[in-house]
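Q: Sequence in, structure out?
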Amino acid sequence: MCDYKCLTVNIPAKIIPIYQASARATIILHLLHYDFVTDVNVDKNPKILEKYKKVIVLHNEYVTQREFDAITNHPNVLYLYPNSMYAKVQANYDNNTITLIRGHGYPDSSADNGFDWKFDNSQYEYNIQCNNWQFQSVDNGKMLNCWPSFRMEYDRSLLFAISQ
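A: Exactly. Output:
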């Protein structure tokens, strides 16, 4: 059985974007001059989101309760990646670690989404072609029905929709 050690990982000092971390979207949005706020920034200061008219959530799969609440209470969020806001973690900034609290079948097999979030859209996570992309309305914004990384490289209409 897994104990505390396998549920806890270090918070990286430097982010190196990889496919799983929505690297392409990060690079594209950076090149388009979007502001970026880290998970750590939001967890330490949830009110930071109040200065933004719109918040775009990338593939933020592992979030704290404080971060989840800050994002889901913001009035205009674009959830760009399926499977975001999926697992609940707890941050320990003294040790610079996060620990899985709930989700991905932990602490028991019935714990899928760590927040029991009614807008969990994980079923679209493997739609990487994103050919028939659509934004679906949720209580505090919109949610994309596919994994947009590759499509963002060439689909101007998707980039335009994100900017709206």
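The first strand starts at residue 8 and ends at 10.
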